[in-house]
Amino acid sequence: MKYAFSFLAVIVLILIAGVGSQIAGMPYFFGVFVPYVAIAIFLGGFVYRVVQWAKSPVPFSIQTTCGQGKSLEFIKHNRLEAPDTTAEVVARMLLEIFTFRSLFRNTKSEIHDGPKITYESSKWLWLFGIVFHYSFLIVVIRHMRLFLNPVPEVVAFLDWADSMFEIGVPSMYMTTAGLIGGAALLFSRRLVNRHVRYISLVNDYFPLVLIFAIGVTGALMRHFLRDGIDIVAIKQLAVGLVTFSPVINGEIGAIFYIHVFLVATLLVYFPFSKLMHLGGVFLSPTRNMKNNSRAVRHINPWNPDIKPHSYAGYEDEFREFMVDAGIPVEKELPAQKD
Amino acid sequence: MYNKGTIIPGLVIFIVFVTFPLWYNGLNAGPVPKPDLPVGEKECVAPAGEMRDNHMKLLNEWRDAVLRDNDRANVKVGGKEYRKGLQMACMQCHTDKEKFCDSCHTYAAVSPTCWDCHLTPAEAASKKETH
Q1: Per-residue pLDDT averaged across A212-239, rounded?
Q2: What angle do CA A64, A66, A72 make, to 5 degrees?
Q3: Over 60: is that where the pLDDT of B103 sits?
Q4: Which of A71, A267, A311, B122 could form a disulfide with A75 if both were Cys (CB 3.0 to 4.6 A apart)?
Q5: Contact criterion met (CB < 8 Å) for A148 and B54
Q6: If you ran DSSP here, which 8-state letter would residue A67 be given?
Q7: Residue B56 in domain
Q8: How far is CA B8 from CA B4, B16, B39, in A?
Q9: Domain that holds residue A315
């Protein structure tokens, strides 16, 4: 049901854009208004979420470590798994962000007769994840050829390298296959693996289906449904959008508006969903803190400011009342001068 | 807000990345390509709109027909016969590769492989002179 709902939602989005963009005057709504609103919500929502996170105190030193922390000299310190300095934390974070090390350690638990539980290394999540994310990154950078005029050499080179197999004309990109295939594999992992399926929610399935649909509409537009896909008109619109002078020249095919509408949906959905792991990976206290709790005291930032109050000070404050009440004091009241 | 020193620069870097096209283009959309149309000729093998969207597929079909299936039968459109070939048909009317093909291809950063084998009209002319 949960995944069926995701497909239904994406189909509704496709119908809205596909039918809506064919109504006279509506291309400007789907081609200009929707993208502007989407990018504004994306940026505003992203900053809002990160600021909200930054406002949350980290009361404890909670880094996750999987190696020997810094200790005595003759005990070998695992610098990556239990970083002690900022440089080591940065190295750990970079490896996490660029190579998804924590997913590489993913294990699969199984119960066998006995009963006996086993844990086995399971690299599929890491493999699908890394193919999917790097494909997506290259797809986004490649799209800059439609937003930048003139096109920088780097983007042109990436475009050439990505289509170097020259399959068909316009030639197929490797990352198109990587993105669509990666999304499909991550989705089927959620269906096939019982443990993951049990904990999967609509908001796990929906982004995968949405990104899958974005990839498929993009590939359809490039390779199959080319009628009305005049790349010059499309680039004029895209460059127009980023220079605040959007124009729609001639009729652009409905598949283009569907593609753009799905991307706009993704951008709007992004800050309010699990997709915020783009920003969140940098703000994970379990990864970005130093494992130096033996050397440096971690102070809870929300601790109230309580001044020390010694017994001597206490007695100074309440001596009269204590004497009145007959409580013994260490230092008597000064002799009264009559 | 905690860790202002890293959060704010991080957010600034992110926003600059996302809005990169804005800074790169500098609010200037730049020139729109205006390919030189052939003088005198009005008809192509297909209507202009269809050629704009699908010319690459047609060229690939012709290439496959000629080079792989040895099918050099002329294409008849509207009483006019065209020989199957980039240089033999297309470039007869669209005589200037730089002013026709390249104008849009450069704009959209498309690098077709046609000219890996074919000679552009300009190159062909220079070859003739040296021989």
Answers
A1: 92
A2: 105
A3: yes
A4: A71
A5: no
A6: S
A7: yes
A8: 6, 12, 59
A9: 310-338
Instruction: Kindly state whether residue B116 falls inside one of the protein's structural domains.
Output: no
Pair (A75, A135) in one structural domain? yes
Q: Which domain holds residue B82?
A: 31-109
State the pTM of this model.
Answer: 0.89
For A118-137, the pLDDT digits (tens) are 999 989 899 999 999 999 99
Q: Looking at the structure, tell me whether residues A230 and A323 fall in a common domain.
A: no
Residue B82 in domain: yes
Contact assignment for A46 to B110 by CB distance below 8 Å = no
Provide, rounded to the nearest whole percent, the portion of chain B with pLDDT above 70: 97
| 8 Å CB contact of A54 and B53 | no
Best of A173, A243, A247, A276 to disrupt the B interface (most B CBs within 10 Å) is: A243
- B28, A243 contact by CB (below 8 A): yes
Phi, psi of A119 (to 5 degrees): -120, 125
If asked whether residues A241 and A316 sit together in one domain, one would say no
Reported ipTM: the value is 0.90
Q: Which two tokens stand for residue A169?
A: 């004309």
Average predicted confidence (pLDDT) for chain A: 92
Number of domains in chain A: 2
pLDDT of residue A220: 94
Examine residue B39 and state whether it is found in any structural domain, yes or no. yes
Q: Does residue B131 have a pLDDT over 60?
A: no
CATH of residue A107's domain is: 1.20.950.20
Output the CA angle A146-A151-A152, nearest 5 degrees.
130
SS3 content of chain A, % helix, strand, coil (to 5): 60, 5, 35
